Amino acid sequence: MKKALMILLAVSVVCWISFASAQQEKPKTAPPATAPAATPKVVPAKESLKTAEGEITAVDTKLCTFTLKDASGVEKQFSTTPVKIKMVKVGEKVSVKYKET
Predict the structure, then answer these.
(1) 66: exposed, middle or buried (Cβ count in 10 Å: 0-12, 13-18, 19+)
(2) What residues pair up with 75 in beta bridges, in sequence order?
(3) pTM
C-alpha cells in the first residue's frame, strides 16, 4: 500500500512539473491578422447634443418614455432608463439634452 502511494505521488509530481514547464515554454501567439478595424468617427459631445425645454405632459413607465411639450406647443417623445423614468413626474418643467438618432 505504501509503495502504491509513493508511486502515485511521484507520478503526480512529474505530471505537475511537466505541465508547469509546458505552460512556460508555450509561445503566446497573436490572433490571426485580419483587416484593420474601422475606427469610429468621434463627434464632440457639445456638437452632437440638442436641448429641449418644456413641460412633461405624459409618462409611460412600461416603455420608459415621456412626452415633453415645449413653449411653442410642439410635443416630442423621449426614451430613458427604467431607473430614471421613476424620477419623471407629469407637469414638471425640465430641460433635456438629447442626441437625435
Answers:
(1) buried
(2) 69
(3) 0.51
Grid coordinates 515554454 are at which residue? 25
Instruction: Provide the greatest CA pair distance for the chain.
Output: 93
The C-alpha cell of 52 is what? 429641449
CA distance 22 to 29: 15
Where do the domains of the chain lie?
49-98
pLDDT (tens place) for every residue of the chain, 101 residues total: 778 878 877 878 777 777 776 666 555 565 555 655 556 665 555 567 888 899 999 999 899 999 999 989 999 999 988 888 888 889 989 998 888 77
Sheet holding 93-98, edge to edge: 75-79, 65-69, 50-60, 93-98
d(Cα 73, Cα 66) in Å, to the nearest integer?
15
